[in-house]
Amino acid sequence: MACKRTWIRDHLSRDGNHLLVEVDPDYLKDRFNHQGILADVSEKVMKAHGTTHEAAMKIILDVRPPKNATQMEKDSAEFFYGMLHARWATTTMGIKQYREKWYNGYFGVCPKLRCGSNLIPIGPDSDPGLSKVKLYCYRCNDLFHCENSELDSAYFGPNLPQMLRMMSPKEPFSRVVYFTEKIKPHYIVDEYDQLVNPKNQVKRVASSIRPQISVNGAGLGNLCRKPESGSEEL
Ligand SMILES: [Zn+2]
């Protein structure tokens, strides 16, 4: 039997929304879960979404078709789904969904040389409008930019990786896939915290404390750390 088409599934299938999981409609309907959702937002966010909560929820729950809604109401639907998603993600069911995806490497692997552990989304800021979603490596304890998603950090929150770890105490959180030519890092961060394209990357920093390791002529292992003061670029 074909899956029923819903606003939520359409939303998740859009580019960049693959980091989200499907929130249970019953959770979205429960008004208790909406308590204080706009309590700490900025004036700008309040102005954009403060009056469209009801209309947005009707769109999310397929009570009202999006084609009959204004652009502001459609934007609010994405916003409120994201904010409720952050709460859902740390519930037992949300963690279960994230655990399965993380375990299978759905969110990608750590680009650091000799790591390759599976990554998980994290939102460094729990307030909307401050930053974008990042990806976290349990093994390196590092955050990476996600080049294929512009979702707001607040749609995930800062506690997701820790909750997953707490609720899966027997899980080996350093799943290691050693770097091979088959693993292509598609998002790496240079020493100025800028996203760089690994195809164009050249040798950068030969740190005095870390040996320079080259793979196929590119020193990818040094790109995720800021250089020590006084170190020289090659
Ligand atoms: Zn790593």
From TrEMBL:
SMART domains: CK_II_beta. InterPro entries: Casein_kin_II_reg-sub_N (IPR016149), Casein_kinase_II_beta-like (IPR035991), Casein_kinase_II_reg-sub (IPR000704). Regulatory subunit of casein kinase II/CK2. As part of the kinase complex regulates the basal catalytic activity of the alpha subunit a constitutively active serine/threonine-protein kinase that phosphorylates a large number of substrates containing acidic residues C-terminal to the phosphorylated serine or threonine. Participates in Wnt signaling. This is Casein kinase II subunit beta. It comes from Oikopleura dioica. Tetramer of two alpha and two beta subunits. It holds the Pfam family CK_II_beta. Belongs to the casein kinase 2 subunit beta family.
